[in-house]
Amino acid sequence: MxxxxxxxxxxxIMDVSQTxxxxxxRTCLHIKLYHPQQSVQSMYRLLPLxxxxxxxxxxxLRLGRDAEACTFVLNDSRVSRKQLALQAFRTAxxxxxxxxxxxxxxxxxxxxxxxxxxxxxxxxxxDKALLRFAGYELLLCQEPGEAKDSFEVQFxxxxxxxxxxxxxxxxxxxxxxxxxxxxSLYPNNSGHSQGPLEMDESCLSTGLxx
Length: 210
Prior knowledge:
Blueprint: H1 3-22, E1 27-34, E2 52-56, E3 61-64, E4 72-73, E5 84-91, E6 94-103, E7 110-112, E8 115-117, E9 121-124, E10 128-133, E11 136-143, E12 150-157, H2 163-169, E13 197-198, H3 201-205
Parallel strand pairs: 1-12, 3-4
Antiparallel strand pairs: 1-11, 2-12, 3-5, 5-6, 6-9, 7-8, 7-10, 9-13, 10-11
């Protein structure tokens, strides 16, 4: 390699290294999936298992049976065409990304830890949450990051029911459902309802909570 080429190559290595150092880390949603029949059915064949994929923070992440309407697809007729949506948001008190979950299914409720969400109702997710619908269990764990405009999502298959992990690892507490904000932001929780809040899906897609 000639001296000029060596110089250019070294500069390239320095540029790549500098980019890696300055790029902000992204919040990652780790989603473990479990279904009692997953060993005999190919319900996960359309999911990018094991890969960390970038997703814009302002766009809702939809999960369901319809490949045209959803970001990620479950290959199962028991799942609704649009089952649920996850929306990232921030508060005025923190630079951290938080997440809302909304039930998009008219066929049944969505269980979030110990709370049930009806159609178009939403809840803020704690750092570790268990979602249940149509026989599925999804364990969501949030890995904090610095980036504000995007986050990552990674799907994995759980080989046993995550209910045990949630029940033994952390208190099975209900998510925040009244304001979409953490209780500590509202002293004494005065003036706020404790029931699930109904909201049209279009509200999520506007980036209202980012």
